[in-house]
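Fig. S4 source data, part A: sequence.
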Amino acid sequence: MEKIIHHMRRQPEHIRRHILHVMIVIFAVILFFLWTYSLGTNLTNPDTQAKINNDLKPFSALKANIVDGYNSISGSN
């Protein structure tokens, strides 16, 4: 590892920046895949599904009110 670091330090700055950018992209892709994997396993949990349904109930009532309001406005024309 020490040889690699020493070799990197001897490179010109533009080469070091290029390596840095490539490493950042690689780590970002790895983190994205880990995040999507953990999200997928978390969303398939039945307890999580029940919590999501409970959390979305107020939004479905709001949607129903908006649709009813739109229907009453468009029906009165």
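Fig. S4 source data, part B ends here. Residues 17 and 23 are 10 Å apart (CA to CA).
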